[in-house]
Specification:
Helices cover about 60% and strands about 20% of the residues. It is an alpha+beta fold. It has a 3-stranded antiparallel beta sheet with strand order 3-2-5. Strand 6 and strand 7 form a beta hairpin. The longest helix has about 40 residues, at about 215-255.
């Protein structure tokens, strides 16, 4: 599909060049001279000999033909390559210029504006043997019309194929991971390689942009599962680190109660109070804590205090 697109672009550019071989102004002047010849022949009929009338018509017709083929007009963004008897004599344009009919020939009308070429590499193996499809866009411009006309047969198609082969070469030197995360480096490498190939043709590459990288569906699913597993692993690591931090905090807090049993009893009483102040609350404490901190006596006192509270009417 991409090759068809490139060919259509080249054909459009060639059609445009063919249409510009004859200037509209030259065509208009040819028509004017032809009308002058016809009017002169009609007005001179019967008063001028047929030989003179024929010479009149032929003379004005030749002048019109000369203007038709000698007068050329190039657009502001164009340069015209002119050959004289097959030899290069120079570049013409932009604007009005003249050539010698039959002897001179305006062979190419070269556009100096920035051109865009889309190219791709299908089912190309990466360095780690993964088939990928890569689409890219090339921005280039002709800086030397003489080289573009004389050094290469068709610089449009040559640029497109040079870009495609360079893309395949770059893909073969990179792993899939590098292609997915290193598009900027890939763009720079492509621009350098393509520019080295097109500079002798008078063409410079302004930039290369990777549009899309398509991988096989099976590999895409495997990479998705791998990414999910990696995220799960990271979450478990974070949870473990949090537990370590909590344990370290408890260990640091326990140091305050080692040589201060009164503070430990007060803390235990506070914990029981917080747990029993809610109606229907159930507090479960280890038996070792009951023995070491006399929590049984304290819980009994709390229960007795609750039973002695005045009942609500």
């Amino acid at each position: 599909m991409n090759t068809k697109f490139i060919k259509s672009v080249i054909e459009k550019r060639n059609i445009k060049k063919d249409e510009q071989h004859i200037s509209p102004i030259a065509g208009a002047l040819f028509g004017v001279f032809l009308v002058i010849a016809i009017i002169g022949a009609v007005m001179g009929d019967g008063r001028i000999s047929e030989g003179l009338i024929g010479a009149w018509v032929v003379g004005w017709a030749l002048i019109g033909i000369y203007f038709l083929f000698a007068m050329k007009v190039a657009s502001q963004w164009e340069k015209v390559v002119v050959l004289r008897l097959g030899k290069f004599i120079g570049l013409k344009g932009p604007g009005l210029f003249w050539i010698v009919p039959v002897i001179d020939n305006a062979v190419m009308w070269i556009d100096h504006r920035v051109a865009v070429t889309s190219f791709s590499a299908e089912k190309t193996l990466t360095k780690d043997t993964v088939p990928v499809d890569v689409d890219a866009v090339l921005f280039w411009v002709v800086w030397d019309a003489e080289k573009a006309a004389l050094e290469v047969t068709d610089y449009n198609s040559a640029i497109s194929w040079a870009a495609q082969t360079a893309l395949r070469e770059i893909i073969g030197q990179m792993t899939l991971a590098d292609i997915l995360v290193g598009r900027g480096k890939m763009d720079a490498d492509l621009q350098k390689i393509i520019d080295e190939r097109t500079t002798p043709w008078g063409v410079t590459v302004q930039s290369v942009e990777i549009r899309d990288v398509i991988i096989p569906p099976d590999l895409e699913n495997a990479m998705s599962r791998q990414a999910q597993a990696e995220r799960e692993r990271q979450s478990r690591v974070i949870l473990g680190e949090s537990e370590l931090q909590i344990a370290a905090s408890f260990a640091e807090a326990s140091k305050a109660y080692i040589n201060n049993p009164t503070a430990l009893h007060l803390r235990a009483m506070n914990m029981l109070f917080e747990g029993l102040k809610e109606k229907g609350a159930l507090v479960i404490v280890p038996s070792s804590a009951v023995d070491s901190m006399n929590l049984g006596a304290m819980s009994g006192l709390v229960s007795l205090a609750q039973n002695n509270l005045p009942k609500e009417k």
